[in-house]
Every structure is written in structure tokens, then in C-alpha cells.
Design a protein that fits this description.
about 425 residues, six-stranded antiparallel sheet, 21 strands
Length: about 425
């Protein structure tokens, strides 16, 4: 059962939140962060991407960069740009995109729940990326950025969300990317108790986005437990910062592929090879979106094509084999184009659906890429089924949007 607790959040005063809040550290590079933070000393990028305070010649993993993160975190607090709440709270964080709003509960999630598999993952993590974020958590002694969880729909927690969000939010703003962000502080002790008790009835939480941050946060908490000879289990380092959304609130968008060449085939030969496993239909020059599971959109030579996987080419009883990302990886990328390792092959690149299918067209028309493939999005049910089965999704399967804004609330490990 999920063990969660309220915490004394560290967060910006209402009038500074738009200056402090930033996109997550991993959705932009150092130069992009440098540009976004230009002229804004209060930007959280000075803490989560502190290499922006140095010249471009300084590597983001340089020890001085981590030291600067700590110095900036302390400075933000000293200057009153980040202030710790005196009492423990839960919080509600909602995001609006394209007229649709999703509501999450900000919690301190339990390290043991992750270590013992009650917080389920669906992706593999890379040790180098874990270690980078572990250093960041260690030096700051805080979870500066939240991780993104989902949980099975729950009527009691849905009612809590409706009750709390009927009041005026503490923060309410539209970020430069056009997404709305809304934030409520929960002070009512009865509601706080209800949240704790109701999560204790939920058997599993699911990582939606932020596998590396989750692993890093949990591993640092576990380290601290092992290093403390008087460890009790209720210390703040036993918990880390997460925003947990009811599964029905979330929408996974497509995560598409572009490939540099046709593996020596002509376009005609490539299309002919596809006919073995797919029904191929030429849709002309207008953008074609995949219409359902097992239907794909292909862009090649100025034309869009519909590809529908033929019956018998996939296994409906295999939670991984039935995924469109598996079907396309096996039958197109591997068998025809010779791409076997999606993580390391330089011939393939990945484009989040937030950029739209016109971005696929642009990259092929420019001559940079030879062919583009768009996939129908994975469902939250598929994600949770795979996590429940103990399987791992193939690389680059899910894309969640909007991303959680960083800097709305921070969790210290010693308070």
C-alpha cells in the first residue's frame, strides 16, 4: 500500500512564482536554459541547470556546477525568493493544455515503496543519468524538482480534488509555452488525513514521467538510511517529492520516429517490403494521422501513407508484443531498415508528438531524414498493465505533456 505524507514545502511567494518557475531540467539543453534565464536572476535554472552561470566551456557535470547549485539554492532562500512553509501540507497542482485540465496531488512519496516495487516503473534507467541527479539531490539535500506519478482512479481523492480546487488557487498563471499552471495549498487537517489514509488503500503508484529523477531521489534516501546508525524510518529523507495524478486525468501523446536512410532500398522497394506485414495505402500529400492502434502513418517522398498491421503479425496476449512501438520496431525498423538498438543507433531520431506531424514532414523534406513514422499513442491502461506485469516498455514509447513546472514547491530532506 502506498505510504505518503504531507511536508513543509519550500516555494516562492505568490508574486515571484512566474519568475522562479521553470521547465524541467531534462527538456532543454544548457544553451536553451541560458537563454530562457537571461536577465532573470530568480529563475530556477540557476539551481537545476547551474552551468548557465558559467561559460559554455564549463561542462554541466563539473564539480563547480554542483557547488553553484547549492550556493544558489541557499541564496534563493536567504533573499526570500523561496520560503519554507511552517506547517506540513499536501498541495494540488493542476495543468491546462488545449482546454483540458489535469489535477495532481503533491505528496512526499516513500523511498521504501520504490525500493520494494510498490512504486512501479515501465522504463529502464541509465546509471550515468541517475548518478547526475543523485549528486544534485545529495548536494542540495532536497528534491528540487518533482517526479510525475499516476494512480488508479479513486473516488475519495477525486472528491478531495474537487473540494480543494473550488477555492481560489495560491498560484495561477500561464507559462511562456501557453500552458496554464494552478496550485492550491491544503491546510485542513481532516483533508490531509483523508489523503494519507486513502493513498494507504492504493496498492501501487506508477511512474508516468521522470524515471531517472525517481531512482535518484529514492537511492539518495536509501543511502541516508544506511548511513544513519539511529535510523527510525520516519525521517524526512525517507520521502521524496512527487505529483500523483488519477490515471484518467492523463493523456499520453504520440512519440514518433525519423530515420536517415532506407538501408540501401529505393522508396519503391521499401514500400513493397512493407506490404508483407502491413496494408499500405497512399494518402497523398495531406498530413495523415494514425487512426487507431496498429495503424501507422508513414511519410516518404512527399506522400503520406497509412500502414495497418496485418492480423497475425503481433500477439494480442503479449503486453509488450501488442504495443505499436514493438510492432514498428520489429517489422519496420529492425527487419527492413536494420536498426536493432533504438538507444544507440545514430540513424534514428525521436520526435515528441507535441511538435506535430508537420515536424516529421519538415525533417524529411529538408533532406536530413529519409522517412518518418508516426505512431498511435499508448494508453494509460497499457502503461499500467505493463508495469503490473513486471515488463519494461521499449525505449521512447511514451510522451507526457504538459510537463510538470519546476519550482512551484521543493521538498527538503532534513525538515
Amino acid at each position: 500500500m502506498a505510504k505518503v505524507k504531507p511536508f513543509k514545502g519550500v516555494r516562492p511567494p505568490r508574486e515571484l512564482v512566474e519568475e522562479v518557475a521553470s521547465r524541467p531540467y531534462d527538456v532543454l539543453n544548457s544553451e536553451e536554459a541560458r537563454q530562457e534565464a537571461e536577465g532573470n536572476p530568480r529563475s530556477l535554472y540557476h539551481i537545476i541547470k547551474p552551468e548557465i552561470d558559467f561559460g559554455p566551456e564549463v561542462d554541466e557535470h563539473d564539480p563547480r556546477v554542483y557547488e553553484r547549485a547549492v550556493a544558489n539554492f541557499h541564496a534563493f532562500q536567504d533573499k526570500g525568493w523561496l520560503v519554507q512553509d511552517p506547517e506540513e501540507h499536501y498541495y494540488i497542482y493542476a495543468q491546462t493544455m488545449d482546454g483540458r485540465t489535469q489535477y495532481g496531488i503533491v505528496i512526499a512519496a516513500n523511498v521504501a515503496d520504490y525500493m520494494e516495487g510498490r512504486i512501479k516503473k515501465h522504463e529502464l534507467t541509465r546509471r550515468d543519468k541517475e548518478e547526475d541527479r543523485m549528486k544534485h539531490v545529495r548536494v542540495n539535500n532536497a528534491n528540487i524538482e518533482p517526479v510525475f506519478f499516476a494512480f488508479p482512479d479513486n473516488e475519495v481523492l477525486e472528491k478531495v480534488i474537487k473540494t480543494v480546487t473550488a477555492e481560489k488557487p495560491e498560484y495561477d498563471f500561464v507559462a511562456p509555452d501557453g500552458f496554464g499552471h494552478h496550485f492550491w495549498v491544503i491546510s485542513d487537517p481532516d483533508i490531509i488525513n483523508t489523503i494519507t489514509e486513502e493513498f494507504a488503500r492504493i496498492p501501487y503508484l506508477y511512474i508516468a514521467d521522470g524515471h531517472h529523477r525517481t531512482a535518484a531521489a529514492a537511492l539518495v534516501g536509501n543511502e541516508k538510511a544506511q548511513q544513519n546508525p539511529h535510523h527510525r524510518g520516519d525521517e524526512e529523507y525517507n520521502y521524496f517529492l512527487a505529483v500523483a495524478f488519477p490515471a484518467s486525468h492523463l493523456k499520453i501523446i504520440d512519440y514518433n520516429r525519423v530515420v536517415r536512410d532506407l538501408n540501401g532500398l529505393t522508396p519503391e522497394e521499401f514500400l513493397k517490403r512493407l506490404e508483407k506485414d502491413f496494408v499500405v495505402e497512399d494518402k497523398g500529400t495531406e498530413v495523415y494521422h494514425p487512426s487507431s492502434l496498429h495503424n501507422f502513418s508513414l511519410y516518404l517522398g512527399g506522400h503520406w501513407y497509412s500502414l495497418t498491421a496485418r492480423p497475425g503479425r503481433y500477439d494480442d496476449n503479449d503486453p509488450i508484443g501488442v504495443l505499436d512501438v514493438t510492432i514498428s520496431s520489429d517489422l519496420i525498423l529492425r527487419d527492413i531498415l536494420g536498426i536493432t538498438d533504438l538507444r544507440s543507433d545514430k540513424r534514428i531520431d525521436f520526435v515528441g508528438g507535441i511538435r506535430g506531424l508537420k515536424e516529421l514532414k519538415r525533417r524529411v523534406d529538408s533532406g536530413e531524414m529519409a522517412v518518418a513514422l508516426a505512431l498511435y499513442p499508448v494508453s494509460m491502461k497499457q502503461l499500467m498493465d505493463i508495469a503490473d506485469s513486471g515488463n519494461i516498455m521499449p525505449p521512447k514509447t511514451t510522451w507526457f505533456e504538459p510537463k510538470l513546472r519546476s519550482g512551484l514547491v521543493i521538498h527538503k530532506l532534513d525538515e
